[in-house]
C-alpha cells in the first residue's frame, strides 16, 4: 500500500493541467470523501470531485501546483504550495464571467489532506482567493460595498 504522502503526491500529479485525470483523482478518495474549497465555501463529494479539477482547468488550462513543503503526520498530510497557471478561460462569478486576461497566477495555498486506510477522506484547500482575483485583474470594489452600506443605513 502507498504511504499517505505518496497518495497525496499522486493526487497533485493527476490534477496537473498536462495530465488532468479527474476520474483517477476521484479514485483516490473514499466513497464519501470530500474536497472542500475553503475560501469559496464549496464542497465537492463523490462524482462532483472531478468537476472541481475540470472547472479550474477550464479557466487555467496550464495549471501547475508547485509543492514547497510536504509534511506527513500520521493520517494527515499538510502541504504548502503555489497554484500557478495562465488565465485563458472565462472565470465564473455570481454576477457573470470574467473574460480571459492572459494573466499569470501564482497563488499561495495551504492544503490539508485527511486519509484513512490509504484513501482520502477529506481534502481542505485554503488558497489565497484574493491574490488569485487580483492577479487576473478582479480587485474588490470597496466603493460599492461602502455605498451599499450607506444606502442601507448601516454605514457612516
Automatic annotation (TrEMBL):
Transmembrane segments: none
Alphabetic keyword roster: Isomerase
Signal peptide residue numbers: none
UniProt cross-references to InterPro entries, sorted A to Z: NTF2-like_dom_sf, SnoaL-like
GO MF annotation, one: isomerase activity
Domain SnoaL-like: from-to ranges: 21-122
Protein name: Ketosteroid isomerase-like protein
Organism: Micromonospora jinlongensis
Highest rank taxon of the organism: Bacteria
Amino acid at each position: 500500500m502507498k504511504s499517505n504522502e505518496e497518495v497525496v503526491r499522486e493526487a497533485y500529479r493527476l490534477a496537473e493541467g498536462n495530465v488532468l485525470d479527474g476520474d483517477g483523482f476521484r479514485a483516490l478518495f473514499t466513497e464519501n470523501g470530500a474536497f472542500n474549497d475553503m475560501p469559496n465555501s464549496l464542497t465537492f463529494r463523490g462524482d462532483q470531485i472531478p468537476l472541481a479539477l475540470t472547472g479550474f482547468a477550464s479557466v487555467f488550462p496550464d495549471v501547475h501546483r508547485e509543492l514547497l513543503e510536504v509534511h506527513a503526520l500520521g493520517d494527515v498530510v499538510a502541504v504548502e504550495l503555489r497554484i500557478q497557471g495562465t488565465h485563458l478561460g472565462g472565470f465564473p462569478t455570481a454576477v457573470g464571467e470574467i473574460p480571459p486576461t492572459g494573466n499569470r497566477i501564482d497563488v499561495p495555498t495551504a492544503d490539508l489532506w485527511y486519509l484513512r486506510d490509504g484513501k482520502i477522506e477529506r481534502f481542505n484547500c485554503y488558497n489565497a482567493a484574493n491574490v488569485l482575483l487580483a492577479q487576473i485583474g478582479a480587485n474588490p470594489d470597496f466603493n460599492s460595498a461602502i455605498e451599499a452600506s450607506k444606502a442601507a443605513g448601516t454605514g457612516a
